[in-house]
């Protein structure tokens, strides 16, 4: 087996072939062999001919991800506590963070003068971000999950 250099379709870094992932950006290349129907006539496999999938920023699992941000707000009468998570998240992490952060914000987010206004805003933002992320994830099929868009 010979080794060669090719560039990553996401970040453009040089990747030593054969390779399963890019060491620079962490993209995992689904191995598509030239014998497959999609690549008949291709000379050899390279990252440019592979479908790239990315990893979830939270759990690290490869697969389809969507960019999302969720916020949690806890009001403590004279103090406020905020927490947020943002990044490319898988379907499981999107649901987990949405329900956990939104439930805490709904239950104890309103205790305090400023918190009366901040908690409802955070709940609405979480709902909008959840809907956007779920919509993006539902449009992805296994063949297009994480596929790179041309720039």
H and E string:
EEEEEEEHH
- Categorize the overall geometry: elongated
Count of helices?
Answer: 2
pLDDT under 50 segments (min length 5)? Answer: 31-43, 45-52, 143-151
Count of all domains: 2
Oligomer: single chain
Mind describing the biggest β-sheet? 3 strands, antiparallel
Cα radius of gyration in angstroms: 21 Å
Q: Kindly report how far apart the N and C termini lie.
A: 33 Å
Q: Determine the structural class based on helices, strands and strand pairing.
A: alpha+beta
**Mean of the pLDDT scores?**
77
Strand content: 25-35%
Helix coverage percent: 25-40%
Q: How many strand segments?
A: 7
Largest beta sheet: strand ordering: 3-4-5
Protein architecture, described:
The two termini are 33 Å apart. The model is unreliable at 31-43, 45-52 and 143-151 (pLDDT under 50). The strands form 3 sheets. The chain has a 3-stranded antiparallel β-sheet with strand order 3-4-5, with no helix packed on it. It has helices at residues 91-108, 115-139; strands spanning 4-7, 14-17, 28-30, 51-55, 62-63, 66-76, 79-89. Helix content is 28%, strand content 26%. By secondary structure, it is of the alpha+beta class. The protein folds into 2 domains: 4-55, no CATH class; 66-139, no CATH class.
Main attributes?
three-stranded antiparallel sheet; 151 residues; alpha+beta; 28% helix; 7 strands; 26% strand
What can be said about this structure in brief?
The chain has 151 residues and is of the alpha+beta class. The chain has helices spanning 91-108, 115-139; strands at 4-7, 14-17, 28-30, 51-55, 62-63, 66-76, 79-89.
